[in-house]
What does this fold into?
Amino acid sequence: MWVEGLVIERRDWNDKLFSLKIKVDIGDFKAGQFIKLSQVVNEKRVSRAYSLVNPPGCDYIEVLAVAVEEGLLSPNLHVLKVGDVIDVATKASGFMTLDELPTDDAKGRHLWFLATGTAVGPFISMMETYEPWDAYERLVLVYGVRKVEDLAYLEQLKGYEARYPEQFKLVLSVTREPLNDALTSRIPDAISSGELEGKVGLRLSPEDSQVMICGNPEMITASQQVLNDRGLIKNLRRAPGHVTVERYW
It folds into this structure.
């Protein structure tokens, strides 16, 4: 089921990467969930899922997207301007949410977010709520992109560091050009080499860590393997573990 949403704001991070704020009522949702946007293209309805960047309780939704030339929907979204309309699903979905993490002894003290590209969105939604800050002693966001221009919401992310200097650590990974104080290696490689832990000053361990991973499938698969080798296993409802994932395509 679809409802019409009104574009009330857009922001272009580079020539392909953009954010849209859409005024629409989708009801209650959980930080970390996604919503489907849709259009009728050539008499056929096309829909795609986009994670929500905004926290629950807003009278709008915000999505972060990249225009893919061969994409069926994203090029059309890329040309939307303030005042345009877009069909939005009436209900958000997804299980990469904080309430899916263990709450007993398996919970750990440190929450790690590993993201590539637009997958930083759901973690921003989570950090805009009180939940992760109340539940964990330390939060780490590792945000991997190819180029500096691909870093979205950077000032907002740095703002968390200013607000929670003893609790939050932002680690950027830019693989195709230099950026001061950023890693240059892929996230799985930085975990494997110990470079990531050295930069953060924390260990990724089954005793202390919960890890949420969102992004491209290669990064997820490789990161899961490295973490599994260290004893961090996939988190399941019937068998609480340490690693929760959501693939972006």
Observations:
- Helices lie at 74-78, 120-127, 131-135, 154-163, 187-193, 195-200, 217-229.
